[in-house]
Amino acid sequence: LSDACNALPTTSEVMAWLQSPSILGMLVWTGVVTTAFTMYMETVALKTLSAAETTLIFSTEPLFGAAFAALVANECLGPEAAVGAAF
Questions:
Q1: Helix, strand, coil fractions of the chain, as percent rounded to 5
Q2: How far is CA 4 from CA 30, 32, 36, 44, in A?
Q3: pLDDT tens-digit readout, 13-53
């Protein structure tokens, strides 16, 4: 088994994936449908909060995203993540 954090797909693998209708459907679903619905619901929900509460939620979103990726998805966070977190 190779380390998933250091394995990048080749160009030919990516092109093969993009020619598959099921993968294109998944990309459209994930990129358009779920993102658009999430943004709509987020906008509706944030209308009820103050500016300070909204700022706090948006400013901590990257922290929760990184923690979720590391704990649940077993994402490898290296030095680049630390540099990105510092800025």
A1: 70, 0, 30
A2: 22, 27, 30, 38
A3: 889 988 999 999 998 898 888 888 888 998 999 899 999 99
